[in-house]
Write a structure and sequence with these properties.
The chain has 695 residues and is of the alpha/beta class. It has a ten-stranded mixed beta sheet with strand order 2-1-3-4-7-8-12-11-10-9, sandwiched between helices. It is globular.
Length: 695
Amino acid sequence: MSATTTPHLFARPPHRPGLAPAPVLPMSRPEMEALGWDSCDVVLVTGDAYVDHPSFGMALVGRLLEAHGFRVGIIAQPDWHTAEPLRALGRPNLFFGISAGNMDSMVNRYTADRKVRSDDAYSPGGEGGRRPERSVLVYAQRAREAYKDVPVVVGGIEASLRRIAHYDYWSDKVRRSVLPDAKADLLVYGNAERAIVELAHRLAAGEPIGTITDLRGTAHLRRGVPDGWLELDSTGIDEPGPPCVHPDPYAAEPDCANVPAPGAAPRPEPHRGRIDRARTVIRLPSYEQVAADPVLYAHASRVFHLETNPGNALSLVQQHGDRDVWLTPPPVPLETDELDRMYEFPYTRRPHPAYGKARIPAWEMIRFSISIMRGCFGGCTFCSITEHEGRVIQSRSEASVLREIAEVRDRTPGFTGTISDLGGPTANMYRMHCKTKEIESACRRPSCVYPGICNNLVTDHAPLIALYRKARKQAGVKRVLVASGLRYDLAVRDPDYVRELVTHHVGGYLKIAPEHTEARPLSHMMKPGIGSYDRFKQLFERFSKEAGKKQYLIPYFIAAHPGTTDEDMLNLALWLKRNGFKPDQVQQFLPTPLASASTMYHTGHNPLRKVRREPPNVTVPRGLRQRRLHKAFLRYHDPENWPLLREALQRMGRADLIGPGREQLVPAAGAAAPKGPPPRRPPRPKPPPKRHYEE
């Protein structure tokens, strides 16, 4: 289905005409009664505190359903030890919507070293332990216990990244799709606005949820492939084993030859010609196969990532026991006017009054920030943004962003004139797009910017520059900062953008993420070479000087990423010392479900190319000791790391780097710390927001 044939997000008439927006979505029966409600149509259950702000997923989904005339209640951070809290709002008329919250509950709970975190930025008072591990599973089971006949729909980041069989770092094994384990009726993945609206209306019309199997961006359970569908065996398409004759869905004019499943009798050959994508499904190796065979796991990961473009993706199916998990193609991205309306619902822009004066750190971090776009075409292998939000950039209109600035100014408590961030997953991808819809719909590249920036990508920063200039001129706005991560390989293409950014929108320091200096780990991350950083640094320093400002770059680096050797980390540490960087925030690679780098970590195979029956060829830093060593290289200046680094340097034959000299990395045992160049950054009052794989 193309964007041109997709119904507008707000095309349907409201379920309850005339339903007035609630001052805040109710969390209790008294609040429902004050609204005159005897029941909720939909009850949303979340692992986060309820903040009525568009940066919080459940508020955004709740206000969307409300705009469609549905009564929506929210149960936030319920006690999961019993089903009783799930009965707080009564039986929902249509369904329970289950989410772990804005963060994966396991990432929220544990560090990259599997240590329990003591805090939770999405809870009142920053208190940890307010949500269960694997929250989607637990909440879904409690909802089923509360009302056995009410449909259960799971979604959000945690469910999205577990929609098929996946490697689970915390248990160090391959786990099944969350859908059968949660005993849910449906899983919605990615930006699920279209699916959730269509689902609510169809359920309200009396359609049983078990028959709703055609919504894009969803997963459901079924037995077998329906009549009239062509099933392609992925192991034939991408050759992890013996090759066979097959229709190639990746070709412009694929040949619909026969592809039997392993051990099955050949199917009658269909008519030759273009594959009917609407009735073609690719069968991935089963859960049982990928759990037992790392090669098949890596192969399944590769095929999964090839089927992420909503313009050409096919349905996927993966057997789990006697049933199949069936994934429909990804959702069609929202158009600008649809996205605008999503961000302009009547949010209170603050926590629910039930929390009183309790601090919710995540809200305090974003309350003066504004999202201008969603999606990312970077395709970094360690990141889950593309798997969740997609690689097609969806941008808001300039007018909508300016209206939200006025909302922040007029309605957000504590506003003093500074917009803390005007950005999104990436600060400078606003309005960037493929030069034609036809090319975009046919593309299967995992990244538009690796190994180089695609010639078909329109990288014009002019719309963003214009937005910056108008945002700064808004009445009551003294300053507009950009705190989202910057894609500097795009920025260097437009020095005018860098000048605008550096002159007006940097608050003393700017965070960027080269991630590494060495070609080997960078190629496994799908990140540009360090030369792009050097070019951006030159522009940054030049324009800062011209503006008469002392400003600093804060580079981020990852330790222990697949494809990284001890020598690579040593070279990075030496680069840091030569350049006067002494990182205090250190990121250690955390394998999150479905990410390509997690596949490398688990299997030793690289799914960025065809997976063969051959020994693993990706260097993977494993074990606590080696991961700590890689982290220690990033913090070479910390005396606590010196014994570990001395031992490693001796083992690597680099004892010449032990000593008092400026070119040496660590002092000899018992010596004082060497005097190196000062750090190239000022002290700062608070660190930038942490990223999902960061400690």
